[in-house]
Records
---
Amino acid sequence: MKASSPIQKVQRSRPAQAQFSILIPSWNNLPYLQLCIDSIRKNSVYEHQIIVHVNEGIDGTLDWVKDHPELDYSYCAENLGICYALNIARGLAQTEYILYLNDDMYVCPGWDQELLQAVRKIGHPFFFLSATAIEPVDSGNRCVIIRDWGQNLHSFQEKDLLEGFAQLSAADWQGATWPPNLVHRDLWDLCGGYSTEFSPGMYSDPDFSMKLWRLGVRHFQGLGASRVYHFGSKSTARISGNPGYFRFISKWGMAPSLLAQKFLRSGQPFDGPLAEQELTAAERWKSRFKRLQAAWRNPR
């Protein structure tokens, strides 16, 4: 694009051997972004294309990314949120598989090898995979491992993490939804990427899973052996809530929790592709009531 365009996309890498195109949206979060990319370089088994979308970048992020020619990047002077950021960055992806990674995540050794082995074992592109996050604070998410190796960069215990992460117990789980997540580029394009009506991003993750479900995807696998350390919402915590919950209900006719619990069986042990589901009479009535709530809220 021309320099005068509100959105810039810059392709510089030549990822001939790259396995994944890693999309990293970043909003004035340079120290975490630097650690994230450093962990990819140090702890990956394979080569990957790294694409950073810079929202604003007034903290030096844009200059730093420009100074690293091995990084591809897109840029907007305004904060467009995660959904637009991911869709813009996807336009630079050169590999068969697209991986969405938060900038406040640190990938652990072998994280990518486990994902690629799972892809090869599945043998078809109709899947959605997630790595397992290790988080310092228990948020009630059954799909993460709770272990405190630092809640910010100042308290981060990288050496202890590297020595101890593999000793933590975690089996594969159902309900892949959250980043880091991996999808074939054809599925990404077929479902239209991340839905911008959820900008700046709240509830866009279950929406993406629901779109894949409607396309017929039933393999939603979280990999216990593919791990990242997640400091936790270092960007989204700066955003006041948007009406994503009711947008989801208006769009899909059910609450995100029903998708997670009944359809995706999120956090349950992985036992293969998910089964078809029918709502019970009680679930249908409850969903109708929630749709009325959503219509009354009338999110725009």
---
Amino acid sequence: MRFTLLDCRFAVALLDPRDPLPPWSEQGPFTSITRTPHELSIVCAEEHVPDDVRAEDGWRCLALEGPIAFETIGVAAEITRILAARSVSVFVISTFDTDYVLVKKIDEAIDALLTAGHEVRM
């Protein structure tokens, strides 16, 4: 697998599920917005999240080169297995074409992926 490290730090913000999408949420190189009956979760560049918003920051993002066919089995399992063996916690986001893996221990994650035979572009 081939990954590209996005050149940004990210935050995962938590809002009320009834809140409208805030304008700050769509700034930066990558945004993921998920609304459920229980929450509005926004992943975006951490520099754009206001101080009064509950958020977990310090994430780095590894983009898996895609597209990955929907019929492909075990991609996320392989990535998380490799990273879990190095005690690297992950926040995985899947899109139509590919997967994005957010981690806080970026050096450990890159080393683990390289050691497992994968490529990481920085």
